[in-house]
## 1
Amino acid sequence: MGNTLLEALNVRVEGSGQKFLVLAHGFGTDQSVWKGILPSFTPYYRVILYDLVCAGSVNPDYFDFRRYTTLDSYVDDLINILDALKVDRCAYVGHSFSAMIGILASIRRPELFTKLILIGASPRFLNDKDYHGGFERGEIEKVLYAMEANYNAWVQGFAPLAVGADVPDAVREFSRTLFNMRPDITLFVSRSIFNSDLRGVLGLVKVSCCIFQTTRDVSVPTSVATYLRDHLGGRNTVETLDTEGHLPHLSAPGLLATKLRRALSR
Amino acid sequence: MPTPVSAARQCLTEEAARALEDAVAVARRRSHAQTTSLHAVSALLALPSSTLREACARTRTGAYSPRLQFRALELSVGVSLDRLPSSSKALDEPPVSNSLMAAIKRSQANQRRHPESFHLHHQIVHGQQQTTSLLKVELKHFILSILDDPIVSRVLGEAGFRSCDLKLAIIHPPVSRFSRTRFPPVFLCNLTDSDPGRRSFSLEVSGDENSKRIGQVLLKKSGKNPLLVGVCANDALRSFTECINKGKGSALPSELAGLCVINAEKEISGFVNGVVSEDKMGSKFKELGNAVEQSSGPGIIVNFGDLKELIEDGASGDAVGFVVSQLTRLLVLNCEKLWLMGAAGTYETYLKLLGRFPSIEKDWDLHPLPITSMPLKSGLMGSFVPFGGFFSTTSDFQRPFSRINQSFTRCKLCTENYEQEAAVVRKGGSTISVVDQCSEIVPWLRMAELDTGKRVDVAKAKDDPATLNGNILGLQKKWNDICQRLHQAQPKLDISRASSQVPSTQGFHYAANGKEGSSKDSSTSENQYASPSPCMPTELQKVFPLEQNIQLPVASEAESCNFKFSTYSIPHKNLPPNCTSSSSVTSVTTDLGLGTLYASRSSEPDSPELSAHKECLQHISGSISTRVDAVRESTLHQIAYSSSSSGPNMGGRSDLRDFKLLWRFLGDKVCWQDDAICSISKAISRCRSGNGRHCGSSLRGDIWLTFLGPDKVGKKRIASALAEIAFGTRESLISVDLGFQEWVHKPNSIFEQQELECSDTEFRGKTIVDYIAGELRKKPHSVVFLQNVDKANNLVQRSLSQAIRLGKFADSYGREISISNMIFVVTSMITKHNRTSLSSKELVEFPEERILKAKGYQMQILTEYAAGDASISNGMNVRVTPQKGVSNPSSVNKRKLTETCDSLTQDETFEMQKRVQMSRSYLDLNLPVDDLSENVDNGDSDSDSIRTNTEAWLEEFLEQVTEKVVFKPFNFDAHAGKILKDISLQFQRTFGSDAMLEIDYEVMVQLLAAAWLSDRSKAVEEWVEQVLCRSFAEARQKYNLSARSVMKLVTCEGCFVEGKPPGMCLPARINLK
């Protein structure tokens, strides 16, 4: 059965350099989302790209509805990939969902990561009594219902909202990758994302993290970035990007690349 | 006129002839009238190891799996073949079509040009004396020329392949590169049975991931006692203990089957809060000890509950200590058979406990296990049933799955069993299947049982067709699995292959939808995964063919332009083949020569198929026509220049060969850069009169200039003057600051207002390269002005290197734009030879960096009594106050702190240091202060490597430019002296020679900025005469002046110029107090 994990998740290693850099995409996108960023890093890093198992570019049959109920299974995948590539140290850039995965992976294998860069990250999307995650449970139910009722319409509405900034190209690209996902998988994954709560475990992270936050993000309020900074166990910084939206790598790739390079070289 | 196959075969080598024969066979099978290139491609792809297939594998675009992309390719070839007309009568050997024959002829010609690789076959026939020299085409060249066929390249493009890439791959042998196969293969956890994750899962009933992980921890040698950490940890703990104590022991790994949990949490929390007595607590521990000794299985888990109880304020310290020591003792006594287990809501809770009992992690052998989600059955996951009830109609979605089962053949026995069960499910009865009966024996059967997943829902399923369907699908899958394992040792079926066997029309349907950019019904989104076409991104489909179209003609030589255009524009019309009459081809060609493309387009017959693509066509034709114009004009230009006759169609542009004209024109615009202008003019006139860049033997039309050194404004002004004189209007200047990302946005800066037209809104969502490429496409005739080329990122560096070498600018997608006839001007503050002299320059009162920070302040005149002995120095009663921050610190108020920082750091060319220094003074709380120095070191080492990289590139790049022009600094100090003299004159005229005027440094900076920026050389003098002079007069009337009073001309902090005369950044009037 020649199907390796590396092939199934379309793992690619690009660029030349000593150090490894993982670019992990978030929910609703696939590795192509990094294409604006990638050329800035290939001369200096060996960049590892892969698709999450829920991405549209992965054969949906690999998505096991019993296995991928919690984030841990995604963490397994990430760590297996890194082990298969014989990576012993790497810097990790994770967007949104992958930021959560990176946090958990660094708890499990702290020696593997030199630095985490978390873009649009949130430990918990739902509000709590002294935590503002940005969503009320009722709202989420509505969103999930809308997703279930008419996926198409939901994507059309959600994509511009998530991209935030007025960048038609980015909206088109995000809609494309969202559409590529099988709707039931999208729904399932968003349920498991909203169901996750990383707040209690943030202290277990010992790797230094850099939190990238755009000025306005529909999914992640700015207070969350501060929360992450205060609760993550390592040495943390918050970097504010002078752009809007949840997907700065699509809407402002140049800006993000510059900031990322600075953050990585710190 | 088709050629008989036998005639065509004579031109080919044996290998190539076999390929042709295969193609003929394809055509015969489909009973087509002719054998075309498409048939050849289809035949080549069908071979498992053909050159074409191998080339495709090497050039495929990374993001999609090779299997999918091949599928897509086969699909689009199939679709295109389907649309060919079939002949009425079946031909034994469908003759070779014109286009394929043309391809053969092309490859012959091509081979002739490469004599080292062709085989001349001298056919010497006995008895006949003449020697016919006939060239036999090799397979490689045959394939290469087939790829040139427009239909083929369109089909390839639809599957995300570019035929030019393929050609390269065929020509160049494969190179070994970093390959993933170097590593041992790792199997995806849910695909293999050898994987531990799967194994443990197969033993579960509840499917609770958290329990699974707890089980894994329990199995470990050290750190075997799980401490669940996380907001949901308590829920997970509860569900785990319940699960075990209810006898569902299978939540545990098999080695630990029979393990039981004893809850001590109530006693412990009661005890530490003083509710439960110590005796009772002691007896509980004794009971625990006995339980461990008596247990027959692998042992017991003691659940000590939530750690919060132990660290809360209410908890008595002694009691907690007792609990901890007792548990430690228990563990030491029975380390083989005892596990501890607990939960902590947050890591901080655990940390507090660690603070109190530092050795507890070791003593208790704890393993903090992050728990990030609720157990499956609660929360949002609750209602979710995969597939079930998800779609309004099941028909669309059923298709791929039913196909799976068709392509996989179960053995007879299993099929019978499956059908039996399926019938039961349909009836809605409960199923007691063979699997259930034998599930006790073979553990994996139970797992297969899980696959159905929904047997509980059977009753519900009766009402819900979707769920029912899901059940049946599940059953199918189950029996497939069983059959596979029991009866056939063959590997797991390849589902995706099966699923892509959806009727090809459907796949195409989607592709068509995508092309029109609208997918309105929800069925489309389902199609998306049902068919393999999502691997062809919609955008690619739209863009790729179009881009190929543009590249090729531009790249080709002038005379072949027209021909290529005509052939390449046809496929985009998506005409059905019967509409592609040769007449339309010729008409386009002719019209191209005349330069009126639109007319012919609109006069084409408007068939229904055509109108469907109208929108798309218009879009394309628009871009084509501009391209055509560009090519035509550049051709004409080149012809005009090389034959050194003046071009009659040059419009309002001046002849750039005239050095004097150029020199005079530029000199008018920027009077202070004589030397630079002289060398610029020389370079341009030299290039334009035929001594310019050469690319091979042909003259290149692009000119590359580098402006080095200071004087930002002068450079920009010269660039826009060049645009004006070369292309008729200033609008044909494309100005991009490559260092723009390092800008710190300063509101109201004079210079930023000037740069407003290239504000970052246009860069949004694009890389700089794409922005430049877009502008180049919009304005094919322009001066491209790239500032701060030393700050260019890699992408830009690469594109620029390529552009200067090959005359084509590539964007980040690899699409190329011809830059012939453009003038590229790149600037850099760094001059190659005196890089050091910039930073260690002699003391200048008004350095350029300071002037660039000028802001458009409102100004005002104040009056003050002179404090000290304000004597008139060097004959002038006007003087400039020293620069702030250098002057006495007492006058620096809080507000000016930022200004101070600015001026202190302004000379730092090392922007890294600058940033750190800034962050120090601005108190960036994000950076831990004590680590700053270390950070700087790290950063330097890394950014140094980046910098040296850039320097090396810059050096190499600058070697290739047409002309390097070094600019002199604008002499601000001299200008300042002149302005002061003017002001002094005016001031004396109003107030007499005794009065004193102090001019703020900031005002001076603003005046100098205005002088630098203004188009007219006398602008500032005029302002002094008009505005300042009037204000002096007003001030004299208003203020009561004594002999010792000193006038002050200062800026109003925070108040910016509004009503200013056009083209000026100085206020139209000055405030008085």
## 2
Amino acid sequence: MTHFFDTSDQDFRIGEKPYLLDRENRGAIFRSAYDARLPVMLKGPTGCGKSRFVERMAFELNLPLITISCHEDLFASDLVGRFLLKNDETIWSDGPLTRAVRMGGICYLDEVVEARKDTTVVIHPLTDNRRILPIDKTGEIIKAHPDFLLVISYNPGYQSVLKDLKQSTRQRFVSMTFDYPDPEDEATIVENEGGIDRQTAKKLVSLAVKIRALKEHGLVEGASTRLLIYAAALLRQGVSPKTAARTAIALPLTDDDRLQETMNDLIDDLF
Amino acid sequence: MKLEMEQELDKQNITLPPIERELDKLKIADPGTAAFAAERLETLSLHLTGETLALMVHDTIFGLTHTSGLAKAVVNAHLDLVQQNAGLDLQTRFSSKLRQAPANTPGEAEIIALFFGSVLLCRRSGMEERFDQALGTMKQRGSFHSTHECFSLVTRFLGENDIQAAALFLELLHETFSAAMVFSLHQTLFQALPKAIAPLPAPKRPWLIRGLRRMVRTDPTAFGHLIKGVRNGLCFLTEQGFDLFLTKALETLAKDRSRGERFLALESRVATDWFNEIKVVVILDDIQAKLQRYMALRTGRNFTIRPVREDTGTICVRSNGRELFLPNEFDRYPDKQSNKELATCLTRLEACYYEWGSFLFDMEKLVDLHLHSHGASQDQARFPEMTKKVSDTGTTNDMTRFFGCFNDPVLARNLFTIAEHARIMHRIRHFYPGMVNRVLPFLREEARQMASVTDAPPLPLILYARIAMDRDFAATLEKDLNDHGLLNRLDTLAAGLVSHESGVEASAAFVVEAYPLVEQHPVQFLNFTAPFHRNIDERPYFKINANTYARAKEIKILLNKGNAKIYTSDIRQKLVENNDTISLDDIRELLLAHRENQGMDMGSLTAIPGLSESLPQGKNTLAPSPVFGENVSVYKEWDCNANDYRNSHVWVHDTGFPECENDFYQTTLNTHPGLVKKIRHTFELLKPETVKIIRQSLEGEEFDYRALVDFAVDRRARLTPKENIYIKRLKQERNVAVTLLLDQSRSTANQVKGSEKTVLDMEKEAAVLFCEALEVVGDSFSVAGYCGSGRHGVRYQTVKGFDDALDQGVKNRIDLITAQGSTRTGAGIRHAISKLDPVAAKIKLILLLGDGFPNDVDYKHTYAVEDTRKAISEARAKNIVLKAITVNISTLSGLNVLYGEFRHNVISDLRELPDRLLSIYSSLTR
Ligand SMILES: Nc1ncnc2c1ncn2[C@@H]1O[C@H](COP(=O)(O)OP(=O)(O)O)[C@@H](O)[C@H]1O
Ligand SMILES: [Mg+2]
């Protein structure tokens, strides 16, 4: 069989060591899961470091990383692959999942619940001890590379969707919970990633911590670490702290004017 | 005749001492009154001269010729005069005024007996004349009762030494009741006038009364409307604002009588708009939601914002961990913005106590960190009492116990306030620099004002300004200070102890060291008042949070028995943060923070007798489950009085419907063919909001190239190719899920204004239209009704579930909804949430259709409204939007409070429904 693409796994290696503040010894747990080749599920709200964690693990384990961001228009064939026509010839082209299965490495299905339901079915045989990927179209059954590891992430914050992830799927993964880091840790992350001084980083974090407590007052999701880093980026561009906090943290969170007003009050206090 | 009797008595009792003799005269006239007088004399322990006593008895006997009530009033009046040292002269004037009252109007004599004394006592010239004039006109027009009410107000003002208001009010009474108007109008005014004036705060009385007089003079017949206006809020204006308003109102009145009258009464739209524009006072009610959210953001806790109960005339702020007390009105500044800012700044300051743990003071920490840390055991010896009390296992909280260690706890408390405010200011400077320049101006102004009322600014206030405000400002107060020694020493002491890093114990350490220094001149420190009366008092806090404290203490003692080191305050903090729960994990974490506990076997924690039992149970512990019926769900309910949820408080019974054939659905469609067509049409238009591309479809407007390639590949491989090679743009899938929630309580059996139909009829017809509309758009939807009878009897009836097709069964059920029970809306919403939450949809919506306000057993007014609001915000937190459509109601503003602005619609006719539904829908999918 001819392969349309012939990529080297070098294309999927992480070149530079991604910055990660490892918390709660997750790195070690992940390594153990990898050693046992157990598929991993990362749970947690958006922007709390799941993707970053996977990048860093791939780097540390010296594995290629293939990330697939799932969306509602993602079909099984988008994962597995399809035939293409080339000069009167039909050529099979591996999808990203298949590629990862063949060459080994981490295949990261980000926000897996966003994908169509039928896509989750194709990953099932990969997650039990068979570790195979059957390809209907070609009749091929690929045995996963010894270094292959499947990692998925999802956000339990969208509770309704949570139930979409069927028990039969969930129960195939070891699961690691992510949450917003402790204030000290988070400040370190914002300081490092955002490239700002610690004092300001701490302030951004204390703003976020307080906003996260506003859930009872109608906020759907709290301010993520990612948003704090955005704010830091704006600050570095010379945007005033108040404006940065407002545009990167308060405004993205809600359209509710009253909640905005309250968050602005606190931003005014802080900066 | 009376005189003869008196002479007779004189002869008989020559030997008695004068008091007994005079009272004996009274005894013969009326033993009851005599006993009353004797008792009053005794309780007041007054010394009366023979003359005064004779005058009193004389007048009392005169009173008895009318009624015994009047006689008693006379006794009281005379004794009042004596008590206030009125002197014989005033008493004689009182006596003669009393006796001038015409015999045929006993009421007049009684008014004089009751109120004239206070007029005499104020000793102002012209007052008596005003009294006479007012009484003169009023006795012709009013009843005794209404006159009484007016004059008791005068007496009240005089009692408060507000002589100006009393004089003005008497003049107003005279002018009002001598003005020409119809009898019935006078009667109304008699009632309304005192009611409008009585609640006015003292500073506003003069100009408001003057304004009322201006009105009476210009247009007495419209006077009543202005009084209504005052009661509707005009008193919230400033003097200038009120003047302006009146001028404008009189202009309107001249042009158009009825418009002018509504303007005066603050009932017209123009008037309220105008009023809101010139109103500078900020009413607590208007800002409390905002302040509450701010407190929640800063402290992570819910505070109820309440008005300070007593009216001290000064601005006074307090809080106790659950409630924040603020003045009901902020009117210090001539503009609204500054008044609002003051309210927010005071809230900002109060939040600091809770954010930075002022009430988490811990005796043991104090000893460990400050009293021992000097290293010397001699330090321990310096405070033996205190160190001993640390191990006290009594129930008194640490703070009260700490202050109790000093000879004068008040002095200690005041020192603590100064140091703790200093610590807080350090923290504000460090953590909230943006706040500094917002709060300081207010603090400075208040302190300046406080300093100005004394000859020399008091030392404690200067110290406060220096360490808890700003030094530059303090310098302005220090000018007249002769001896800076103590001030400097205290300042240095505080600087060494208190910083933005220190805990509340540092403030206590300051007290320990400062107390002996100030003990020599305690008076100033005893009388110290912090700006805005913000002196720290822990007692209300611990009264409200007694349980949390007791629990923490209990856990601590158990752990101490297991030889573990742990601070009560750390346990308390966990409890406060986690809604009164603490887990073994939390405790482990706290224990690990102490070096002393290293090497401790954490696994053995559970073995500590009593510990796991004494851990407070979480909020989510199951309440005894309902005994009957399978389909009962238990919900919490928000108690706005406790500012907390009542867990497992409400039972919702999810019941079905009997089977029953009917053609209500079809009939409704037939009776509103136009509407049905319109709603189908409009919702058809709504469809393509989110165009959904379906690939690998059997039909469609474009090729799906991936599928096309598969097709070609299959053909070449001589397989039967699949023909799903098109892309279809599907409009149906909008990913919206809606619940139509119908209030089916008994009140919906009322008729809609100007219609034959009841509210419920309309709701049911609306439900039909709703089903039609949503069938067209293809959204997933459900329909249900709810009603209540007490917290264990809420019923929820599902007409159509999300998975049900819109079949005949569903259509039949719509007509089976009947009006019954009451309206426990919070529970209805919560149950609807529980059903909508698991549905996978991007946009989730509850449409609440009803006739107005929630109401059930123990579920009324504010409580009901607040719980409903809470349920709505719970929905919002789950990404569920709630919109209300209300049938047949006129008071919009209340609904704003209930559902929030823009979250409700009012309809009075079914024809309005399609448009409302459409606007709700399009705003959602915007
Ligand atoms: N533990 C962490 N160490 C380093 N960076 C982090 C960490 N957690 C979050 N971040 C930062 O936050 C950003 C968002 O995290 P990301 O991994 O994209 O979140 P998620 O995948 O959970 O949505 C990252 O780009 C990174 O800058
Ligand atoms: Mg991610």
